Amino acid sequence: MGKxxxxxxxxxxxxxxxxxxxxxxxxxxxxxxxFNAITNSLVNDIINPVLGVFxxxxxALSALAVPLPGGGDLMxxxxxxxxxxxxxxxxxxxxxxxAVNGIWRKKEAAPPPPPAPSAEEKLLIExxxxxxxxxxxxxxxxxGAGDAGGETP
Length: 153
Description:
By secondary structure, the chain is mostly helical.
């Protein structure tokens, strides 16, 4: 009995893990990790040295630290590195989502036109229009159609 439960559990897990959404998520995480390395390199190797020049002659912004009175340093540069990494990643994700949303909007076709009325519906529309015309037509004189317009004795 325990082996059957284990087999069922692993079969269910295999079914879950091979779903399209989970596989898409796994690919996204792997690509995100690789992109994170690129972003870290951009911040640490290109942006930090440039900003470090303006931050007091440091070679890298990450070296920027504020000494604390009781000893130790407040690593402001490391915090700014993390903020820069976040902003770059957030901007890239924003651009990707904007592009994906644009693609989805283009793929959404205009709604199809309403179907043409059937023969029965056309007949009913014609009857409705005729009844409407009869109600709106001026009423006949009181004598009716048999009245020749003469005076009555």
